[in-house]
Every structure is written in C-alpha cells, then in structure tokens.
Model the fold of this input.
Amino acid sequence: MVNHGRMGPKGLYGSWQAHRKDRLTKPLIRRDGELVETDWNTVMDAIVRRSQDLLAEVGPLSHGFYTSGQLFLEEYYTLGVIGKAGIGTPHMDGNTRLCTATAGASLKESFGSDGQPACHADIDLCDALFLFGHNMASTQTVMWARVLDRIAGPDRPRVVVVDPRTTPTAEAADVHLAPLPGTNQALLNGLLRALIEHDWLDHEYISRHTLGFDELKATVEPYTPEHVASICRISPVDLLRAAEIFGTSERVLSTVLQGFYQSHQATAASCQVNNLHLLRGLLGKPGSGVLQMNGQPTAQNTREAGADGDLPGFRNWDNPEHVQELARLWHVDPLTIPHWAPPTHAMQIWRYAEQGSIKFLWISATNPAVSLPELSRVRDILRREDLFVIAQDAFRTETTELADVVLPAALWGEKQGTFTNLSRVVHLSEQAVEPPGEARSDLDIFLDYANRMGFRNRDGDPLITWKDPEGAFDAWRECSRGRPCDYTELSYERLRGGSGIPWGGERLYADGHFPTDASYCEDYGHDLLTGASTTPTDYKARRPDGRAFLKAAEYTPAPEQPGDEYPFICTTGRTVYHFHTRTKTRRAPELQKAAPEPWVEMSASDAATLDLADGDVVRVESERGFVEVPVRIGRCRDGVVFLPFHYGFQAANELTATQWDPVSKQPLFKISAVRIRRV
Amino acid sequence: MHLATYLGLLHTSLQTLADAFREVAKGHGDEPDVEHTCHVLSKRIDAQVEKLGPIVERYGEHREPEPERLHAAEFSQTRSGGVGLLRDLQDLYALASFTDITWTVVGQAAQGLRDKELLDVVSSCEQDTARQLAWLKTRIKQSAPQALIAARG
Done:
C-alpha cells in the first residue's frame, strides 16, 4: 500500500539481520568509572533506588525522560503513563524534537490538531508538487521513487523545490528556489503575497473555512518579489514562476521537512505552507494537500501517545476537561498529571540537567551525544556527577559510554508492536526472533520499572494494568477514544488482515471542517514570533468552531548571521546511506563502505576563492567547536556549506548552536556561522 | 493639556523597557530562547518609539522633572540562576505592564481628541505590548515550578 514493494538502500542493507553482532546483550553498570557487565536485577535495583530517593528528596521535577522516534506505539504510551501519572513529571520528550516537532506544531497551529491531511497516493494524483526544504531523494528514497515514476511518466507534474543546495531533488525540479538559509519566512510571505496579488484564491473557501485572512494579507503586503529576492538572494522571476505554478495548478501537493523545520522561524514558515493550501482550498482532495513530513519510522506515535511531553491522544494540556478525561481513565488525581505549563521540551530538559535540577535522565533509543547541538556542552552534562544517566539501546553508542547504567534493548523483529506512518497508516510489526542474549523489549523494561516502583492508582491498584504489547495497545485504544487519532476501531486482529489501516480515513479535512473547536482542539496555539501561548479566553473569543487559522508572521533575521570572522553559513543534513548517528547503518558493510566518513560541501566559486581543491582537508569552525574534514566541491550555493550529521567523529554538531524555534522548540541545525581554513 | 506629560512618560518608559529587554538578553545568554526573544522584542519596542516620534512632534513632550513621581523604575542588573531568571522576567513583566497601561491612557486621550493617527499608533503598539506580556507570562509559568521546587541554591 505504501512502498509498492520497493526498498531504499538502508532498508535493503541496514535491516537487523545484518548486525546481530556487536549487540548489547547484558546490562552494564558503572563501577569505579568503568562500565561493567551485570544482571537485570542489580541494574533495575540501582535505577529504582535512585529514582525513589530523588522522588523523596526533591520530587517528580528531578526526573527527565528523553526518548525516540523509533520505539513502538505501545512503548511510548506506557512510558507516557509512567511519566505523567506514575511520577508526575512534565520533563519528557523524544528526539522527535530534533526532527518532526515542527510538523506537529504547524499542524496544531493551522488546523487545531496534529494529523497529516494528505496521503502518499496524492503523489500519484497531483498536478504540481512543492518540496519545501525537503531533499526527498536523500531522506525518503522509496517515496522519491514514486515521484520519479511521475516525473518520467505521462502527465508529468510540475515540480518546485526550495533548497539552498542543488541536490538531486532540486535537479529534477522545474523551478529550484535556493534561498539563503534562515530566510524561508520571507520567501513564503512572498509566495503568499503573489497569490493574493494575482487573486489565485478560493474566496468562498477562505470565508467559510478560515480565520485571519485580513491579518495575513496585511503581514505579507511588504514582501514584494524584489524585496523577497533581496532578502533570500533569489531571482524575483523564479519566485513568481513558483507562485504561478502554485496558483494555477488544479491539484497541488506540498511536503515540508528539515530545511524549514530546523531553521529559526520553523513553525512560522511551515504554517505559511499550510496557508498556501488554505488560500486555494487545496486540502483533503485527491492530489491536493500538505504532508508536514515525519522523519523517523514511529515519530507519529511519539506525538500521538504523548512521549514528546504532550498529553496522549492529542489532548490539550491547557484544557482542564482533557486532563480530567485522563485522570478518569487512569484513576488518578488530576493534580498528579503535569499540566500547569506546556510540557518541557528536550532542549529545556537538558538545560535543567545542566543546572542540576534534573538529576535522573532516562535516555531510550537515541544517541544525543552525537545528535544534539553543541556537543561539548552535551558531553559535559552527561558527565555531571549529580546526574544519573540511564541509556537504553541495542548497541553501545557515544551516549552509552557516558551513562551510569546501560540497558540492552531489543530491536524491531525481536519484539511486537504497532507503528503509524506519515499518512496515519497503522501497521502491526510481529516478533520474528528472540532478542539476543539478555536484551529485552523497551516495553518490558518500562513495565519492569513501573512494577518495581509500585506505581498505584487512587484505588490502590497497580497504575499500569497491561503486561504485553496487545494489552498496551488495547489500553491506548481506550485512551484515544473520541480524539482525532481514534484507534478504537483497530485491533491486532484487524491489523493482521492486510497492509495497514489509516486512522481518520485516507485524507483529512475533505469537508473543510477542522478540529479547532475550543473543547476539542489539541492546542490553543501560539504567537509565531515569540512562542507566547494563546490563552483559553483569547482562543474561545475568536470562535474558531471548525475553521482553520491563517497564521501570519513577519520575517526576522536568524539569531546567528555570517560576518567577518565566520563568513559562511553552515547547514547540516543527511546522506542517503545512513540513519541518524549510524548506530545501525555503520554496522552494515555496504552502507558503511558507501559513506565511511564525513566531508564538507561547498560551491565551486567559494572553493576557488579559498584556493581549495576537491579532497583538501579543511577545518570548519564555529564559535562553539570545529571539525576537520575533506572538501567536496559542488551542490551548495555561494556562501553556504554543508556537513552530514551522522558521524560521531568529526561530528557536525560540534559546531551547531543551542538555539531553537520559539513554537516547536526544534533546534536550528541549518544556521551556524562558520569559517573555513586549510589544515 | 497634560497629554504632552503622558507622551513624555510613555517615551521614557518605552526606552527603559527596551533597555531592560536588552539587559536581560545580555545577562541570560545561557537561556538562548530568552536571549533571542528579548532581542526581537527590544527591537520592536524601538519601533514603537519611532512610531511615537511624529506624535511627539505634534503635541510636544513634557518630561516630568521629578522622575520618582511619574517614571517607570529603572532596570538595574540581571540576576543569575533559575530564581534569578524568574525575578528578571517578573521585572520585565512589571515594566511592560506599566507601558501597557500608559498606552491605554494615551489611547483614551486620542479618542477624546479624535486623533486618527494617534489611534492607529496606539492600536498597533497595544497589540505589540500584549505580545510582550503574553510571552513573559508563558516563560514565567514554564520556569516557576522548576526554579521554586527543584533548583539548587
């Protein structure tokens, strides 16, 4: 249904069968500074003792959880209940904060709730395809193959790509816009202005199904093609061509990814893509819609089940009735469930650990010692004496080496659970083999912790009543009842029947009715410029009642600008051959051979100015740190260089800054000022 | 007419507020969101001062000679730590509230004078001030539990 039987290089070579070696098979505990093998009883005992001591001494705010976009739904939901109703801490997030937090945030801001409006089949049906900061040929190879089918086939759609690099994706485009990193908001305001100027609008849709047109129109008014061209350093003619394609195509599909999500006005710019579609009423129809992309396989579940800190089932932390629903479901005092402020995002969790107020940090299925920005700082935090670090993973990583205890975890294929893809399609992944050695599923580990901690509900019964994946799934179904992501119709039995079932139907919002009703919405929204929360009173006063929000924001310059000392803008990103920090892919010989080490890409003209040839080793340095890597010439626009972020040695995140988008809290990996010197 | 007195008050309190935002940005660089947002907001307050310029030219401005009587308290120095951040944000909140109500007073005079130009300035600046207050409240609410319950020292 989704992949049409195709696999990308990582699926083909990087699957779990290839690397049963190197696995973590026993728990590890730090003794006299060294990690040594131990047994589950000892390690869980150490965790529970520290946890209980801290709860008694400091309380729930001493605990933080940093999880993943790669566990199963059942595992996230269980972790969410432990955090929110067992301990009662708001400090829980996933590494989805680094990859798709803006997808969720922009959907909430525009439509009232997370949930992808479009589906993969829209690729087959669109007349125009817009890729905003989305190098699909590298990031989603199987999806890209579906686009290539259209490009090489009859009735070719027109393709517009926004990317500062001339990627293979950009080379396939009819119009390639290469704005300077950090100027997406200006570009999108320019596109919106052109749509309004040429009256490429669906006036009836706007008046019946949206709020905020006048403010949007006033906000984008100054963004003439010439003004935008001067900010973004693009051709005004190309901008107008792109606007015309959007404005005059019958069916338009847009996708958005890291080029937008990891920039400073991330949520604002991603909302403007939603606005383009709202202005033309191109949502929820075959071939028309928005895909605010997910990166990791189960990022959608992290967001649905509340492991990113949100309340599970797309519930609104600021709506007392939603908190009551959860309290009734879990039989706990509503005051236990942290809802006094937005959940603590990952970057703030790490800040609290740095300040010593979080003293217990449980990391699962992610490698922050390579993937977070400003790595020297992250290493310092992980090494703090007063921070107890649990790292749960299938392999030893840069992060496990700094942990106090290491828990060996099973991978998919070694455990059972469900995952939900980009277009809300739910699949059941069965267990095929036993985990190696003493490794356990993440679910079993979380359940063991809950059991040993003795979490109880208000009746004195165990808080968590399930013991296996199917039990967790059934508990989650009940939790999702009546919410936009309603799983009550799904069961393991039904999921075994075919190739996956979407919640919410194939497309959302075909009728132009959005989940913005004040009693139903997931969030009351934010000021896009500062991230200030909209109060319940202000939200209700606007009476959204099913209409979508046309949220507007002016362009503001990025916090870090290139200057005399650091004249280049550095962006980071992927190569097609590796996932994240290569924890799995570097152990697949074919993938490792294809991309064994990092490099820096720069334009031919910048290389010529610095008198550099292909392969020359250079030091790329920001205010925060440096890497020494060989040069590859090509692909980048002048003034912009690119580093792949996968590598734990000469790691790109030595250079990146601790900064984030005000609404989605996603870090700004795409905008670091750097200098380049030959080594 | 005392409008000139109030325009003077507004003018100085906006400058005080913009400087205070800059000061907090400088003092809390370890909280990057605070640093960046304070910079963004301080620039917008500068823009408010500019918008006030033509109005001041028309009505004049009377700077109160006894500052302690009609003057927003100056922001002196940033504090450190979780509670320090909280207190600094609270000081900003108090200063922003002061300019907020001063805009309200000036707006009422603009109504009485049927001064369309001044009404437009007041309307856009009131929205901007509401944004400052909303952000400060959001950030204060986020910080308070950790600073008061879990932070050391």
Observations:
- The helical segments of chain B are 3-27, 32-59, 81-113, 116-150.
- The first helix of chain B runs from residue 3 to 27.
- Chain B has four helices and no strands.
- The CA atoms of residues 10 and 45 of chain B lie 11 Å apart.
